[in-house]
UniProtKB/TrEMBL annotation:
Keywords: Oxidoreductase. Residues 19-428 form the Aldehyde dehydrogenase domain. InterPro entries: Ald_DH/histidinol_DH, Ald_DH_C, Ald_DH_CS_GLU, Ald_DH_N, Aldehyde_DH_dom, Aldehyde_DH_NAD(P). The lineage of its organism: Eukaryota, Metazoa, Ecdysozoa, Nematoda, Chromadorea. The gene is WBGene00095174. It comes from the Eukaryota. It comes from Pristionchus pacificus. Pfam families: Aldedh. GO terms for cellular component: cytoplasm. Belongs to the aldehyde dehydrogenase family. GO terms for biological process: aldehyde metabolic process. GO terms for molecular function: aldehyde dehydrogenase (NAD+) activity. This is Aldehyde dehydrogenase.
Amino acid sequence: MVSYSALVNKQREFYLSGATLDLAGRKKRIETFKKLLVENKKAIDDAIFADIRRHPTVMSDVDMTLGEIELTLKNMDEWVKPKKFVTPKDAQYDPASDELHLVPEPLGVVLIISPWNAPLICSSALIQAFAAGNTVILKPSELDPTFAPLFANIAPKYFDEKEFAVVEGGIPETTELLKERFDHILYTGCPPVAKIIMTAAAKHLTPVTLELGGKNPVFVDESADLSLLAKGIVGAKIFNAGQACICTDYILCTPAMKPKVISTLKAAFDALGDMSKVPANARIINDRHFKRLMGLLKDTKGKVVYKAGGETDEKDRFIPFHLLEVDSADDILLQEEIFGPILPVMIVPSFDAALNHIKRNEKPLAAYIFTENKEQTKRFVRETSSGGVTVNGSCAHTGGGLPFGGVGNSGMGRLMGKYAFDMFTHEKPICVRNSLKADFAY
Ligand code: NAD
């Protein structure tokens, strides 16, 4: 098994030389990454399509990362500025001679471990790691067998491995990599593997950011605008064939709403026709996940109340959207993250019972409510805990400059723009005595 010590040491030496501190150098690394993306856009788009069958017209990982780059280049002069504090006059300080500062400093060598379903956009955090003055080792998912080698092949054409390196591999290689000491690890994936990552990080007291998944609930109130429900569920379940961390995982509604929810979703998916005939529609990532999803359909005690157009096809790894009615929270469909085009509906007696169910289960990455009731919206947001909430839609709380991340079992730490920059930064408090008028600007 290959050892990663030499690579990590090389990056650490580069960091320790102070070469990553220079602001112009940080910007150059980001510009170089932009060049890499622009010059290889077609090859990257094609690789992602080959692996996930997600067409760039549906969502472009490259364009989204370029957006993050523009935002960072526009704002990083401000982000890296040390803050000067007003010195109080008290027993400890004298404003005539004492200066108080908060100086952002990079952490060092950052490891980013990506999932297969967002091979590049999850790695847009590496832009923030560069902006903060770190070096980066990226480990793409082995479940993207076209993207991972392509990216590992492109990266050295643009970067010396002392500043940015891509390491390919699955579990054995990642296990070996995790023996090294990093200064921060960003892992995106599932909670069981996150525990392995955190245990390895603990040996070196390395801080971690964990971007995980979970069972994202949807409550449909009797006041809900059902056209919004149709739009929200179709959008979430069609995108990546439901293989997204913020996908709607299960529906809770009262008995009165059940027939309305079923007929609304039935009409919405019927209108799409046979999705197996749409080439840009993502397929299940691999045979293991295909079998896992078929196993869920076999083992559930729930009843299929609707199956969308198209036939299940093992060779093409296509599963049409399935809507099921499930009686008990013990059912397998209510136990593990579905991550596919299957949606269970569970009847609850009331809104309070729905809140109770959500509160007593692991904190999800996202929670959704469809309602026209303001008071209920307030209670849902205040009384349940989740990474984020969209009201009357799905997945919409993940843009607009808002931070993105989970809580509890769905993760820790926040991504996007300045939030990710702060994650890869230590803000160091400084007191300078004797009126030095020190300047710490990069
Ligand atoms: P995964 O955990 O199987 O794999 C993610 C990464 O972890 C891969 O690079 C893989 O090589 C590595 N890995 C897997 N097993 C390992 C082990 N035993 N030791 C060390 N490394 C290991 O996750 P996945 O199947 O790629 O992605 C699906 C999960 O990711 C879902 O739970 C989904 O909700 C979550 N996800 C979360 C986000 C987010 O931003 N919160 C985004 C995308 C996916």
